[in-house]
Each structure stands twice: as structure tokens, then as C-alpha cells.
Amino acid sequence: MKAKTFGLCLMAALAALTLTACGERTGGGTFTYEELMAKFEGDIEENAVIRVLDNQMAVETGHLQEVLDAFNERYAEYNVQAVDANMDQYVDLEQNGPDGYGPDVLYQANDMLMRYAEGGHILPLPTEELDIAEIPSSVMDAYKLETYGLDLYYAMPVAQQSTVLTYRKDLLPENWEEEWDDNENGVPDMVETMNGLYAYSKQVKESSSGSKYGLYMSLVDQYFNTGYLLSYGAYVFGETHDDIGLAADGAEVGLNLFRDLAGVLGSTCISQNATTQAATYLTNSAGTAFCTIGTPDWLTTFRENLAATYVRGGMSEAEATAAAEENLVVVAPPRLPTDGDITKELTDIEGETFAPTTMGGVNAFGISAYTKYPKASLAFVKFVSEYENLRWRCEALGAVPARLDLAEELGGVSEMLSERVASGLVYMMPSTRDTQYIWDPLSSLFNDVATDNTTRNTPIYTTEEALKGALEKLVSDIRSAMAVGNIS
Amino acid sequence: MAVKQGKAGVCSDYRVKLSCAFMGLGQLFCRQFIKGALLMLFEIGFILFLIFQGVENIIGLFTLGTTEGVPIMGIEGDNSVSMLAWGITTLFFIAFFALAYHANIKDVIFTVREIQKGNRVRTFRESLSTLLNQKFYVLTLTVPLVFVCVFNVMPIVFTALVAFTDYGGEIVPPRLVSWTGLQSFKVIFTMSEYIGTMGKILAWNILWGFGSTFLVYFGGLGLALLYNARCLKWKRFWRVFPMLAYAIPSFITLTGFCFMFCDSGPIVGQLKALEWVGETFTIISYDSKWSLRLLGFFCCAWIGIPSVMFLATGILSNASKDMYEAARLDGANGFQQFWYLTLPFVLFATTPVIISTFINQFNNFSIFYFLRPETVYAPGYFNANSSDLLINWMYNLTVENGLYSLGSALSLILFAFMAVFSLVAYVTSPAYKKEDTYR
Prior knowledge:
The complex is a heterodimer.
Chain A: H1 2-20, H2 33-37, E1 49-53, H3 56-60, H4 63-74, E2 81-84, H5 93-96, E3 105-109, H6 110-119, H7 137-140, E4 144-147, E5 150-153, E6 156-161, E7 164-168, H8 176-179, H9 189-192, H10 194-207, E8 213-215, H11 222-231, H12 251-265, H13 273-283, E9 289-294, H14 298-312, H15 317-327, E10 328-331, E11 336-337, H16 349-352, E12 353-354, E13 358-367, H17 374-384, H18 387-397, E14 400-401, H19 404-410, H20 412-422, E15 426-428, H21 439-452, H22 464-487
Parallel strand pairs in A: 1-2, 1-3, 8-9, 13-15
Antiparallel strand pairs in A: 3-13, 4-5, 6-13, 6-14, 7-9, 7-10, 11-12
Helix pairs in contact in A: 11-12, 11-21, 12-21, 12-22, 13-14, 14-15, 19-20, 21-22
Chain B: H1 2-11, H2 14-21, H3 25-29, H4 33-63, H5 80-116, H6 124-133, H7 136-162, H8 183-190, H9 192-228, H10 235-247, H11 250-261, H12 266-273, H13 290-316, H14 321-329, H15 334-362, H16 366-371, H17 390-400, H18 404-427, H19 430-433
């Protein structure tokens, strides 16, 4: 009995001790710009090993390894070893960083990187040491975050992403100039307007009994399909994050347009796999798909696939590569009808259509706050953002540079996309943590509406009110996700 | 009464009091020097641990950190999640120490009693020998117990405690986690999205649990009876097929089923080509509810029936042939023999299997995860789809959305439900009530 009493007394004493010891919580204080950048001062660390996370395409094409080798060679005197982080390209630094895992340098899109910035997981960079003069302020601002009363930039923008249309010239109808060029501007209507693309897709599908497609793309891809809503007046966040504008007036017109498009694409496109499938369909010998909508960097893969198809058909490597380059054309996303009706035939393309707004983003290199080698990491970021190395990257990966001068020099898609950014036709993904809450509800919305016009026996989104209701539900879901995210 | 008085007499002995005050002191005065010294070292080690680490860990368990880290300045700060884990570990150490303390007092009482009886005090070698021979079971069970505590109980306690914090969403290290009491449960039970989703998923999960268990169990039993039938030829040949289904990893089977039954797969395509179904026919789509649920039952049967079949085959081979012979002589037909002999016999032997099958099926994560490979949330569901089970929902909340405290609260609710069901099912089962029937 006494032993039990003694044990209880001991426990009570411990509990009392712990409760009295609870203290006030303190933040991290405040810091000046010089203090924040002090870690980058001086010579780079010797014998540093920095793990670099790049995107899958850079890894698969071998470009990353070439860059790593070049960097290691330049900094050989410091015996710095930059190595492939060998991690999933969407690795979550927020989870891995504090545990001591994760890369030292990482290449991701602005919504992800700025989520890390808000959580304090990536380092603000000394912009005075970076070559940012030719990067538009709208692009740099994607990485700006006020910290300790200072406007700090958390990553070095490298490439811009937005939506483009890629088509195969050899699959154009022979008489396209007579039948599919109403405004006689030398641009096929099916790649110039969404009405033309809709009509052509319908014709191809019907004439092939569903075995071929005009347009083939994933109907559940939030990134590309949100453009239809944005083009007709929607926005993601307004002045505050309480203002979610995806159900703004006009967005239902864009949603109805998407619904019509889904009807002609069919249920096989209601899948993320459709994105992978598009690369096959667009480049196979049967020419299963005429075009797809995606990002500019897909072109590299498309060209490789198509060249491989030509080689299998008997061409030499060089001929096949040249033919693939010639045959695959990248253009701006098709113009949309002002009234949102893609099923009608246009009589005045210029007057009845407008250039669409598409979702865009900026991919950049950031440095993990958990790196042991900030100077070596910064050296790597500087190295990859040098003009020549950026050009090397853009040519190897088909990326659109963030630098205006390089975009101009490269011309083609890069120039076209830069112009679209300058014209305000690219809506930058908001660089905030709350952006993460929009993707799943958006994917569900597109699934729902696409299903409605493909496999649903009793369609429900046949009226403007129903479409508006779907958008309001979307906003409500995003709000709930944000609320739970803030509570949890 | 005499025994109690005797015990009280022993407890008042100064050597027992000394061991109560400090481990091993009493043993030293009983001339058990090595044991006493080891026990004293153990307590000293524990006190040192408390001074240098333990108290800090316990304080950390209460505060979950007081200084927020600033990784961009290389300031580490407190890691709330680690502090929670170390706090729990320290509590386990304290519990282990308390047990050791108790054992130390029991040991000294035993020794003093032996001295009072006039017996010789055990030497250290003899004590060790007793531990190895007479109390070998204590030694052998302690090691697995420690492993169970470290690898099972502690993570469970950690997960359970996370439910009472705000860990997840925006609150991840370096930000400090706080204790929020029942906030997570309040969110689940008061936010309309959550309670609505939970109600729907729970109802479906219960139906799924019972339905799939019934299907797997009776499907397996039926197949075993079929393979056991005298009229069946080439039994070994037929048994190969369920063995194949059982041997192939379930995720490969499920991926195959997903491909076969998706819109671009051969089955739906062929049905449409034959015009047996309309153009809008689909099995796995965004708003598929019952078609996908039924496909889930089918896949579950495909994967689960073989294991029950093998089990039932083994049990049936032990059934007494005399019973069946007697039943036949009494004029019982095949169904009556099954109903009154086979079923009670198999049910008795497999009740724990039924319970474990139910728990496995109730928490069957893989079926709908692989049948609906993409993350899509259905209207009327929050972070879930109409075919999702609670475990899938939990996955969505925690892994996909990082809402750890909510996921943890949900897992506690799930655990409570399963614990009550398992207990009630087992206590009311023939295996528990009529334990001696088939012995």
C-alpha cells in the first residue's frame, strides 16, 4: 500500500513539475536584409555535395546530368559535387525538409515554391547577385513575398508555362485551304478557333466511327481547362483569399463551352491518363489524334515519339528527326467564341471570337532552407540561370524562357508565349499556399461536367442555372477545404 | 487473515522500506550485493535520464515547444512533432521504470520473507538461474512486449494524441503545434461537409464490411465444399485456379480489373460494340456509384475467396465422418447435413477468422484505391468519392491533403467502432460461448 502511495506521489510530483514548467511561446524574431543574406557571403563551401531536384523531362533526356557535369567541372577547384537528388519531381519539401531529407536545390512551379516560402522552407535569394534584368516584373513578382517587412524573392525564374496547341500538319485535310480557312489568313480554322476545332473533331470522330480524334486531351486536367472559366471572367483569388472568383459572372459560359467540348471528345478523355495517351495518339503512324492542348515543353517528347514512328516506317534517324520537327506545329490556344457557343459555324472570325486567357505559371530554381551548403546551392542557381545555360535548357527541353531577350532570340513558341504574358492573356497561378486547395475541387468539377455530356444518362448541367450552381458548389468546396486547412 | 498479517509484517521490515525509498538498497542489506548494486545503478541511470532529458521531454509533451524555428536563418527552434514523440517515449520509460520498481519491492519482500523463515538468501547466480529456468516465460515474453510497445503501442498512442492537436494543414514544423482538445472531433461532427460525408461513407462502409465478409466467407466455404465433393474429378487441377488468384499480388489483380472495366477497356468496349449496352454505359467513371461498388464486391470475392477456401478445406478434412454417416442413417439430406453439421462445425472453428476478415474488409484500402486510380471527389462528399471507405477517406485527408489531426480523429472513431464490434461479435459467438463443444 505504501509502495503504491509512494508511486502516486512520484507521478503527481512529476505532473506538477511539468505543468509549472510550461512557458511562453516565442517567435523567431525579426531580421534585416543583410542578416538574411549573410549565409551567401564568402567563398562557396569546399567538398559540398548538393542534391538537385529537376523535372522528370530534364532527368529522362539526360539534360540534368549534362548540366551537373558542367557545373562540377566549373567548380572543380572547390571539389563541389552537384548530384541528381533522385527524388519524385513533386517531392514535398514541407514534409521532408524538417526531417533532414529533401533536395538542396529544387525546380518547381510558383504555387509550390511559394507555399514553401510561406512556410519558411526555402531561402530568400540575393537578387542583386542574380541576372534578373531581363525577367519581366510580373514574372519576378510570382516569387515575391513580404518577410520581416522586406520584399524578398524566393526563387530564380527559369521557364514560363502556359497552354499551347500542338498539331500534326500531315493530318490536315488536303483541301483545308478551301474548306477550313474561312478568313483566308493561311491558318487552318481548326487550330485558329475553338468552333473550327469542335467541328473538325466531330467530323473526324464520326467519319472514323470513333477510332480517331480531332482534339485529344485530358478533360480532368485542371490546369488547362480552367482557362475556359478564366476567359469568360472568372479569377482565382481577388484582393483577399475570401474572394474566390471562379463562379464570377460569365464563368458559366466557359463551363458550358467545356461541356460541349467534352461531348465531342468522349468519356475516354475523362482521365488523367488521357494526357499520356495524347502523346501516343498524336505521334503514332495511324495518326489517331490530330492535335492536343498542353504545355510547350511537351513538344520535345512529341518530336521524339514521332521521329521514332518515322524510323519504324523506314526513314533514317536524321530524316525522321527533320520530318518530325517539320510536321509538328505549336500554335497559340484557339480563339474562343464571344457568346461561348462552339457548336455554331462562325461567319466573322475576328468579330465573333477573342484570344483566350489561359492558366500559367513560372518554374524556378529555389534553395532549401535546410541545405548545409547555401553558397554552393546559390552558385548552382546562378549557373543554370546564365544566359547561355538557359538557352541550352530551353533548346534541350523545349521550355519557354522567363527571360525576354532569350525568348525573343529563340522566337517561335517562346516569343508567342512571352507576348501572351505581356498582353495579360496568361493568368499566373496565385503564388500562395491557398492555391493548393483549388486543384481537387476543380478536377472534380471538370469530371462532373464532362461526365454530364458523355456517360450520364440524365444530364443535369443543361441550363445556365445548373452550371452556375456547379460553379458555386466549386467555390464552396474550395472555401471548405481552406477552412479545414486553416483549422487543422 | 494470517497471511495478510504476515505480509504486513514483512512490509514493515526496514529492508523493504529501504527498497521502497531507493531501488536495490533493501537488497544490499539482505546481502544481495550484485543485485542491489545493479538495481541502484538502474535507478541512478533513470534519475540521470530524467534530469538530463526526461523532464524536458515531459515538459515538451505538455508545451509542444516554445521557440519557433526560423530555417531561413538556420535557427532550429522546437520541433513539436518530435517533442510529442519523445514525450510519449519518456512516459513509456517511466511506466517501465514503475514496473521495475514494483518488481524490486516484490523481490525484497520475497527475500525478507525467506530470511524470516530462516532460509538462505539467494545468490546473484541463483537469482539469474531462477530467472532462466523457473521464470523463463517472463524473460521470453518481455522482449516481444518491449517490441510491441515500441513498434505498435507507441505509434498508436502518438496517432491518438495527434487527434487532440492542430497538427496538419498549415501547422507543420517549423511552426509549433498546439494542443486543441476536442477541436478535430468538433470539426468532424459539426462541419456540415464532414458529418454529411462521414454519415454516407460510414453507412456504405458497414454495408461493405458485412457484404464482403459474407461473400468471401460463404464463397470460400462453398468452393471448399465443391472441391470436397466426391463426384468432382481432377480435384488438384481445379484447385490450381483459386491458388493462382491467391498467389498474384492483389494490387496487380486490381490494376488489371481497373483496365478491363474502364471506359477504354475491352469489356465496356465489347459490350458497346455488340450493342448490348448504350453509348453512355460506363462502370468506372466519375459518378459511378453502384456499378463501381458492385465491381468492388466482385474483385473482393476474386481476391478473398481462395484464402477462405483453403482454410475451410483444412477444417473440413477434420470433420468427423461418423457424424455424417449417422446423419445419413437418420435420413438427413445434403442441405440438412450442411445446415446442422457442416456449418456449425466450420463456424465454430472460424469465428475468429470471420471477425478478422470483417476487420480486414472494413479497412480494405486497396480495392477502391486501385479501382478508381484518380483522385476525384464526388458531389455531396468532402475529399471523398461515393465508393470510398473510411480508410480511403482517411488517406485523402492525411496523405493527399495533410490534415493529420482530422485523419487521426477519424482513425480513433474508426478504432472505437471496430473495437466494440469485434468484442461484441466475439463474446456472442459460439467459439466463445461453447468453447468445449468440439473438444
